[in-house]
Amino acid sequence: MDTSSSRTRAQDLDREDPLAWARSEFNIPTKAEIASAQLNHPPPVLEAEKSVYLCGNSLGLQPKRTRKRIEQYLDTWAKQGVQGHFKPLEDSDLPTWLDADARAAKLMAPVVGADETEVAVMQTLTANLHLLMSAFYRPDINGTRRHKVILESKAFPSDHFAVETQLRHHGLSAETSMITIKSPSSEDNVLTTDDIKAVISEHASTTALLLLPGIQYYTGQLLDIKTITAFAHEHGIFVIWDLAHAVGNVPLHLHDWDVDAATWCTYKYLNGGPGCIGGLFVHQRNSTVTKSITDEKPEEGYNPRLAGWWGNDKKTRFVMANKFHPVGGAAGFQLSNPSVLDITSLSASLEIFEQAGGVPRLREKSLKLTAFLEELFQEMSPEDKELFRIITPSDPAQRGAQLSVMLAKGILGTVMKELELRGVIIDERKPDVIRVAPAPLYNTYTDCVFFIEAFSAALEVCRTSRP
Ligand SMILES: Cc1ncc(COP(=O)(O)O)c(C=O)c1O
């Protein structure tokens, strides 16, 4: 495959890229590192020694400043012990541990388009889903009025499990109360807004909750969050969004779109690190604390929830009284004191988002980068193109960074092995899909060309090794 003109085009685009500086903020694994079973290798000398990492949809790369921030945190713990909770240090720009969650919420709020009081950095995605459902999924347990939950038929398994077990927790069952949305026309279950509206309309009077992904993990499809939320609201349905693949990837305006609640993880495009602390959004109207809490009716004055001491008003959190008085806003849904190690790691990455001018600026590059990658796929030879098709919508408004590619049956293993041999990291969804995601913070146009060269070589191996 002759990619010389693509290489030249990519080099020009990389030179003109106003975000090019951001790549140097990240540790890009070298080819030697990803091929090795040992941790220690000499640092790379040439850019060409670096791997082609197009996997930010699964695990974002490590910002260089994460190590520095974590060392600062470790020093504080080593030298201040418990005082780290409340004692500001003149030569450290990290917040005290008591304020670490609030500072992280402040950095996170612009990423999701929310007021900082509407965001809490807490727990993990699935745990937050359960917490949100415990607060806002209040089914009529006689099963006559609003008891159903609508979700997509190919929902991420954790979301499916969370809904199914919530139903059982309320004495309901998936058979009677779980409605799954299936595309009537797309074999890949790419859903139109009308497909979703039709299911909402059909079950409008008996549905309590709609749970959808901002970006579908398998197909990479970006849903119209604003329109779908408004439509569900017209039918009196509460909407929770799973933003695992949308956060840090596409601009979000959760407050202005009137989203009820949402949750996300931070290890994908937000580069917080594996299993890092999650995020939660609760719209202002769902989290107000209106009355003073009385002994007679302690539950009045705020939306019900499963509570813990970290959701209590900071002013009385340490009084240690047994009367829960939540702080207003999303912070009132917190349970435990958060892992400051996690928050420190996440905040290091969020600093880069801030420095880059926020997600809308990243999206400008992301749109070009993913379109460039799509073009390269289209320019592949007819023999190569017989072995794959892109299942992510071609409309840029209906996707983020990721392109999902359906391979011909039986070649996934060979493709993945051949890519890895060539220093390319992407991810797979068995049996036949690969997901390729150029992240605008650290990927280049040249990465896309290297990927296509390796992919074409991998397909060639598949062809020659096929019976
Ligand atoms: C769409 C989606 N939902 C939920 C999850 C589960 O996240 P967690 O393990 O952080 O609860 C993931 C994890 O990758 C995901 O991609």
TrEMBL record:
Organism per entry: Coniochaeta pulveracea
EC number: 3.7.1.3
Residues reported to bind pyridoxal 5'-phosphate: L125, T126, F156, P157, S158, D159, D242, H245, Y267, W309, N337
Domain Aminotransferase class V: 180-284
Keywords, ordered alphabetically: Cytoplasm, Hydrolase, Pyridine nucleotide biosynthesis, Pyridoxal phosphate
Modified residues (N6-(pyridoxal phosphate)lysine): K268
Family: Belongs to the kynureninase family.
EC category: hydrolase
Localization (cell): Cytoplasm
GO biological process: 'de novo' NAD+ biosynthetic process from L-tryptophan; anthranilate metabolic process; L-kynurenine catabolic process; L-tryptophan catabolic process to kynurenine; quinolinate biosynthetic process
Catalysed conversion reaction: 3-hydroxy-L-kynurenine + H2O = 3-hydroxyanthranilate + L-alanine + H(+); L-kynurenine + H2O = anthranilate + L-alanine + H(+)
Pfam family, one: Aminotran_5
Role played: Catalyzes the cleavage of L-kynurenine (L-Kyn) and L-3-hydroxykynurenine (L-3OHKyn) into anthranilic acid (AA) and 3-hydroxyanthranilic acid (3-OHAA), respectively.
Pathway noted in the entry: Amino-acid degradation; L-kynurenine degradation; L-alanine and anthranilate from L-kynurenine: step 1/1; Cofactor biosynthesis; NAD(+) biosynthesis; quinolinate from L-kynurenine: step 2/3
Swiss-Prot/TrEMBL cofactor(s): pyridoxal 5'-phosphate
SUPFAM superfamilies: PLP-dependent transferases (SSF53383)
GO cellular component: cytoplasm
InterPro entries: Aminotrans_V_dom, Kynureninase, PyrdxlP-dep_Trfase, PyrdxlP-dep_Trfase_major, PyrdxlP-dep_Trfase_small
Subunit annotation: Homodimer.
Main location class: cytoplasm
Keyword Disulfide bond appears in the UniProt entry: no
Keyword Transmembrane: no
Protein name, UniProt field: Kynureninase
An example Gene Ontology molecular-function term: pyridoxal phosphate binding
